[in-house]
């Protein structure tokens, strides 16, 4: 995002918020809880977590939930989203970036410049990328 200084301390705080979000997940069917924290340009943070249903088609992913939370609190998420941290306990110990559907959501409800921080909760291994790097050459541009 233009002129937004995403310092290390802000990144760390955002990842910390994603850990809090993860505690609020509802994932009895997979047992795989995911937490997300979305940083807005004004400094506010919105949390999201996965909310499953027995019919998996109804499942809300953590990243999407955070965007919906920000939008429902009055933000123009396409303009105001700066960064999102996503944390999950992927077994291989590597940080896991959002799934393909969530990447589409981050682009659609956010923008290509959104900074994505992924951390594995088991190993604390972290990785970072812009949405543009995670979803290059995307289709259906307005
Ligand atoms: N999940 C997310 O919340 N975000 C992702 O990007 C990957 C998958 C959730 C959905 C489901 O509740 C569980 O993780 C297992 O797929
Ligand atoms: Zn997803």
Tell me the Rg in angstroms. 14 Å
Q: Characterize the main sheet.
A: 5 strands, mixed
Low-confidence stretches: none
**Roughly how much helix do the residues carry, as a percent range?**
25-40%
Could you spell the SSE succession in H and E letters? HEEHHEHEEH
List how many beta strands DSSP finds: 5
Helical/strand content category: alpha+beta
Number of helices: 5
Assembly state here? single chain
Bound compounds, each kind once, are: tetrahydrodeoxyuridine, zinc ion
Q: Strand fraction band?
A: 15-25%
pLDDT averaged over residues:
95
- Tell me the overall shape: globular
Explain briefly what this protein structure is.
This protein is an alpha+beta fold and 142 residues long. It has helices spanning 8-23, 62-72, 77-80, 100-109, 131-134; strands at 35-40, 45-49, 81-88, 115-120, 126-130.
Note down, in words, how this protein is organized.
The protein has 142 residues and is an alpha+beta fold. The chain is built from five helices and five strands, in the order H-E-E-H-H-E-H-E-E-H. It has a five-stranded mixed beta sheet with strand order 2-1-3-4-5. Strand 3, helix 4 and strand 4 form a beta-alpha-beta unit. The protein is globular, with a radius of gyration of 14 Å. The chain starts with 7 loop residues before the first helix and ends in an 8-residue tail after the last helix. Zinc ion binds next to helix 4. Zinc ion (ZN) binds next to helix 4.
